[in-house]
Design brief:
The chain is mainly alpha-helical and 437 residues long. It contains 16 helices and five strands. The strands form two sheets. The protein has a three-stranded antiparallel β-sheet. A two-stranded antiparallel ribbon has the order 2-3. The N terminus is likely disordered.
């Protein structure tokens, strides 16, 4: 009984090193958020974003961890990398060569796809950096002061290169967290940006209450609603459909193998927090173009993509369902499961091995994914409508809560898995020493 705590203590130095490395890299990211791009009037920019805090700029600023409102070197955040990942995953379905590279070439193929994703990230960042730099030149504070001190191609090129370097650095930080720390680096970067902005959102809510724009009763109702949403998120993220698996007995030499019963767990929300992040990154593009462009026709079209419009929410829900099914199909292949079960002598009771097993798993997975899409859409859209009607900061929206809870649960599960593996390794080493004696 004493071996468990001893092994836990033995695994703590490595755990503390991984946690310290993760915390250090996240701190480096937060420092970069506060380094502004040269040539921008900070006071005029602050006044401009104060007037735009309840528009889609607020949502984009949330995903960039506050970097957009500062026009910092990390203003674009990790969104270009996410957009590049979406394009590469779509190309895996369209292009047979990329699909073969991902599935048949193993680790080398995945490294090539990662390299292509990085190149595409740089290209997207350059294009977005040019658009934002040109948009900044046309921005003025409510008092009429220009945001850019010296407009021209010198400022545009400098801004493009600065944004590109910042996004590449964030991408590298995320990869280092995934490799040397604990958890998914990209998800933790988005998570840290939302967590850091939460105190500011609470202060904004307090100012609204003090000014009489929000009643104390409404604030209490919002807190209760957020708590209920978080409980619902935890419940659904833990929900599983367990398919019973039986293994037939088989004799190898003089030993009998198999004859055991286990289960195949299928999560209700297999895609996790990916669908709302991908959907938001796509819908932010036309709205951002409309905000920075002076063209009347572009602004009129972009107004249809405001978060309060019906068209925006319909497209948002459609994209969530699309990415739920698309991402689930990428990470979970019923054909591979059926083949692996058949090779290992496993079968689902009442279902024939092979093609019938594949159809059965695919049907269950489609139903679960449909339910997961309904759940993600409800969590993401309903709070957004409340935000639009009651003037609540974006940080209290369903998408941010879903990311916070989902990433936190994934992080804790990885910490638990690491501790269990360390305990198992310590137990095996102790057994080997006892056998040696």
């Amino acid at each position: 009984m004493a071996s468990g705590p001893m092994n836990t203590m033995a695994g703590q130095p490595e755990m503390m090193r991984k946690l310290g490395w993760t915390f250090f890299l996240l701190c480096c990211y937060r420092v970069g958020v506060h380094i502004p791009v040269p040539g921008v009037d900070a006071a005029a920019l602050k006044h401009f974003f104060e007037s735009m805090s309840h528009t889609l700029f607020g949502l984009f600023d949330m995903f960039s961890g506050g970097g957009l409102s500062n026009i910092s070197i990390f203003a674009l955040g990790i969104m270009p990398y996410i957009s590049a990942s979406i394009i590469m995953q779509l190309l895996q379905v369209i292009s047979p060569d990329i699909k073969r590279m991902a599935k048949e070439e193993g680790q080398a193929g995945r490294r090539k796809i990662t390299q292509y994703t990085r190149y595409l990230t740089v290209l997207i960042t350059l294009i977005q950096g040019l658009g934002i730099s040109m948009g900044l030149e046309g921005m003025h504070s409510p008092a009429g002061a220009p945001v850019v001190l010296a407009a021209g191609w010198h400022f545009r090129m400098m801004t493009m290169l600065t944004f590109t370097a910042g996004t590449v650095l964030i991408m590298w930080l995320g990869e280092q967290i995934t490799e040397k720390g604990i958890g998914n680096g990209i998800s933790l970067i988005i998570f840290s940006g939302i967590v850091v902005g939460t105190p500011r959102a609470i202060m904004q809510s307090g100012q609204l209450i003090a000014a009489g724009d929000m009643s104390v009763f409404l604030a209490g109702a919002i807190v209760l609603f957020m708590a209920a949403v978080m409980v619902g998120i935890v419940f659904v993220e833990r929900a599983q459909r367990r398919i019973p698996i039986h293994y037939a007995k088989r004799q190898v030499g003089r030993k009998m193998y198999g004859g055991q019963t286990t289960h195949l767990p299928l999560r209700l929300n297999t895609a996790g927090v990916i669908p709302p992040i991908f959907a938001s990154s796509i819908l932010l593009f036309p709205a951002t173009i409309g905000q920075v462009s002076a063209n009347e026709w572009i602004q009129r079209v972009a107004s249809l993509f405001q978060h309060t419009s019906i068209i925006y929410n319909i497209i948002f829900i459609a994209l969530i369902f699309f990415f739920c099914f698309f991402y689930t199909a990428i990470i979970f292949d019923p054909k591979d499961i059926a083949e692996n079960l058949k090779k290992s002598g496993g079968f689902i009771p009442g279902i024939r091995p092979g093609e019938k097993t594949q159809e059965y798993v695919d049907t269950l997975l489609s139903r679960l994914t449909l339910s997961g899409g309904v759940y993600i859409s409800a969590v993401s859209v309903l709070p957004m409508l409340l935000i639009a009607n009651f003037n609540v900061p974006f940080y209290f929206g369903g998408t941010s809560l879903l990311i916070l809870v989902g990433v936190a649960m994934d992080f804790m599960s990885q910490v638990e898995s690491h501790m269990i593996s360390r305990q198992y390794e310590g137990l095996m080493q102790k057994q080997q020493r006892s056998r040696g004696r």
